[in-house]
Amino acid sequence: MSKHRFSLLCALTMVAAGIGPMYTPAHAQNDDHRGPPEPIKVKIIGFNDYHGNLQSPGTFGVNTVVPAAQRPAVGGAEYLAAYVARLKSQNVNSVVVGAGDFIGASPLISALFFDEPAVETLNRIGVEFNAVGNHEFDKGSAELRRLQNGGCKITNGVPDPNSCKGLGSNAPGTFDGARFKWLSANVFETATGRTLLPAYGIKSFQGAKVAFIGMTLKGTPGIVTPTGVAGLEFRDEAQTVNALVPRLRAQGVKAIVVLVHQGGFQTSPNVGDINGCDGNLKNADGTDSDIASIVKNLDDAVDLVISGHTHAAYNCSANTLDVKNASGAAVSTPRPTGLPNSVGRLVPVTSASAFGRILTDIDITLHPRSHKVLSVSPTNRLVDRTDVAINNAIAADPSVKNVVASYNALVSPLANQVIGTITTALPNTANAAGEMPAGSLIADAQLQATQPAALGGAVMAFMNAGGVRSPGFVNAAGTYPYNVTYGNAFTVQPFGNSLVTMTLTAQQLKDLLEQQFTGCKGQTAQRVMQASNGLKYAWSASAPACSKITNVTLTPTDVTVTPPVVSGPADNIVVNGVVQNPTRTYRVTVNNFMATGGDGFTVLLGGTNTLGGAQDIDALTAYLSGGYKAPKAAYDPSLPAMAIPRITVLP
Q1: Which structural domain range is residue 443 located in?
Q2: What pLDDT, on the 0 to 100 scale, is given for residue 390?
Q3: How far apart are the C-alpha atoms of 488 and 24, rounded to whole Å?
């Protein structure tokens, strides 16, 4: 074991924990004031949803009124490391923590190497504890354990050539694994009844113990490939925390921080600053957001919640912030003092956006004798790449920068290959009907890959909206036509899912389309699928669950040629909500995530005669390079042959 790793392990007390009865502690204001005169000051540095973004994800502003042209470039692993180092230098009592999704849905520079680069850079940034997020389970629990413990990825019985590059590990040809500890308090193995990974970690500061409970959202099985969560049980977030309080108290812990991969959004049309809490994280209809619902049920022992998942920035704490609007005038941004817990006390709740754009700088003061929390003061700070002081810090310690540059040198030849050209921006933002320009292209690519009889004989394809990643196919410079690179495509399709073609009856097809909407057949959220060329359907926004689909028409279209051509007469599958021929069958293509019930599409579990196909990224690459790469004409969604729009929403 390396000296560095040994010293870190000695500094951290890691324990797995089970479940116990509820406990409600006294508060710091009931303490006496004996003991050392000076309170103990601790700095917690938090962030979330890193997603393997070793390089800058672009620009970001401190609030929504900052003009796009004035927003600084942010993020990048070497800048994260520099900012963390500067914050740690301000207080020897410091700890770096995360709220999940540090891996998965990553750019090619990390994903091609099985997210080992993400782990290696996080090691050098100095992370100590991180909650598991839903994307930590994309490749299953065994792969998560490998990333925790180290060792090479084995593919077909031999080490994979893209694993163990070792550019950020102790030696080439090795992978050290995470020096930080992933925490999974609410994730239990059904076979053993134990947590998959430790439930919490404890770090001591001048004798005062601070506990960090880490967990993901209980709804993870609904948004992850079922094989990724096989053999695991995901329990209620608040109940999990509350059950751990007695065990922590028994170990002398008086300060408890929850790292949870679940969050909310600011809802008021205010300046939306990164240190705001507009709308108190209420939903638009006034109901509690997911994170607010969790906090409302937490034991009063919890002192701070660091959240994630929604990629939003907010700071629900006792601080206030003054920002300036576009004209330079001061805009006062009042904030609530936290979110109410189970006894109504307001608890600070933070989130640091995503991709390494923001760090949450949290100063905590502990009573010198009782070690209870006296105050919590969080501030979200941009990881601003234009900060001259930070540039100097990076120049003094280039190790993280060198790791990123080395992986970039390996991946650049592949990432920069042009695979096709588009005539206009194809974002992943949906219109009122739920249709995304990027989603239509992807659905067509998947149909093309499986339309030949030998490859599945598909007549339609569906793409889950959540799998079409930001920003879609967009040129940041705003000029078109635009050459799409493999790296661009991988950013939009980073999961490595494979295609599956199956047979569905007309009735199953109608049921599947109904299952896009909350409340139908167990669906928990509205998830409008992206449809391939030739299929058109309409849905009613006001109709009750399971009765929203009004019309479905399939006009068989050959998308294996450019431009696509109609190859058969229209088939009215559903008319005025009625399935015309319930037993008629259709060959339908989806990805393996959806085919196994992902995103709540359990109707697909009833598909028959399934046939596996290519990976989604390969289908997308073949579609663009085969039909829309020079000297052929660019992809133009406005052409009548593309039959867009394909989805209509009715009152």
Answers
A1: 416-650
A2: 79
A3: 51
